[in-house]
Amino acid sequence: MEANKIIKKPLLTEKSYAGIASKVYTFEVDKNANKIEIAKAVEELFGVKVAKVNTCIVKGHKKSQNTKSGRTIGRTSDYKKAIVSLTEDSKTIAFFDSLS
User: Fold this and answer.
1) 77-85: average pLDDT
2) pLDDT at 54
3) SS3 category, 12
4) What is the average per-residue pLDDT within 65-79?
5) Distance CA 23, CA 86 (A)
6) How confident is the model at residue 97, as a pLDDT?
7) Pairing, β 62-67 against β 70-75
């Protein structure tokens, strides 16, 4: 699988902002990607050294909407989240440097 298809987008939350200073970054990744593939994709895309990858499946949230025909209840999509820690001697990811 290609690196661009494994890493979908960065996740920018309050908790992920706190990890930027210690070289811990959060990404939304492909559901079928494993930790080794995620580590190789981050190293290839950003030119850094990955120390550790933690993953989890995030369940979609319930959403409700009031319409003319009644109340509609649905869910957002589930996705896989990867928390990537870089080595101490690795450089930082430039995209996240501009945010902090």
Assistant:
1) 97
2) 98
3) coil
4) 92
5) 6
6) 80
7) antiparallel
DSSP state of 87: P
Residue 25, both tokens: 């970054």
Q: Which residues are bridge partners to 81 per DSSP?
A: 28, 56
Amino acid at 91: K
- Cα–Cα separations (whole angstroms), residue 58 to 19, 31, 48, 82, 86: 19, 10, 26, 10, 22
Predicted confidence (pLDDT) per residue in 19-52, tens digit: 999 999 999 999 999 999 999 999 999 999 999 9
Tokens of 38: 């995620």
- In the prediction, which pLDDT does 52 show? 97
Per the rule left: phi > 0, alpha: psi between -120 and 50, beta: everything else, 47 is left
Of 44, 49, 45, residue with least CA distance to 90: 49
Q: Do 99 and 20 meet the contact criterion of CB atoms below 8 Å apart?
A: yes
